Amino acid sequence: DRDFAIDFLYASAVCAMHLSRLAEDFIILNSEAYKLIVFNDSMLTGSSIMPQKKNPDVAELIRGRVGINYGKLNSILTIMKGLPMSYFKDLQEDKALVFDGFDTLKDTLTMSCELINNLKASKEKMLLMANEGYTTATDFADYLAKEKKLTFRESYGISSKLVNYAEKQNKTLDQIKLVELKRFYDDLDKKVLSIFNVKNSMNSKC
């Protein structure tokens, strides 16, 4: 059998798949629509016709190379599929598949490390977007359930109404004042305001 080779190529394919997903995240976060991360110019290449364009080619190569690792795994499975339970010359093809699969994954890992070491996160933009998503509405519902002993269904309803109000007022939840909060649930004090801070929300889940 060649189960050991199949197992290796499977592990390589899974590893490459996760690196591809990471690269896809980087490509999206680096795009003009988000600009949440930026790469050093060493990780970018120019466009052949657009001088202003910077392409995240390293991330795109990582994303694309997973297809090679998938292909190696599929190839050896296809070779094994038609063989009786003994040795045949078909199995000599396993070596190129394993060695090439190893080299491909090694290069992908090297590029991934370089990519990670050459990116910078735009923390200010991330914080701004985190506040815009009303993510702390869940924290508020949890607070009402735990501290005020409401059912979560009741807490959920109150928090939903608050989000609708914030949307109509064009405010983020951390911009809502205590007097406004009391319109939705009266038994609140200033301590509740810290719940709407996204940094506090993140730290509470660590």
Short description:
With 206 residues, the protein is mainly alpha-helical.
Unreliable residue runs: none
Percent strand equals under 5%
Order of helices and strands: HEEEHHEHHHHH
**For the largest beta sheet, what order do the strands appear in spatially?**
1-4
| Spatial shape | elongated
Query: Overall pLDDT, averaged?
Result: 93
Count of strand segments? 4
Radius of gyration over C-alpha positions, nearest whole angstrom: 26 Å
**Portion of residues in helices?**
55-70%
The major sheet is characterized as:
2 strands, antiparallel
List the total number of helices: 8
> What's the N-to-C terminus distance?
46 Å
* Structural class based on helices, strands and sheet pairing: mainly alpha
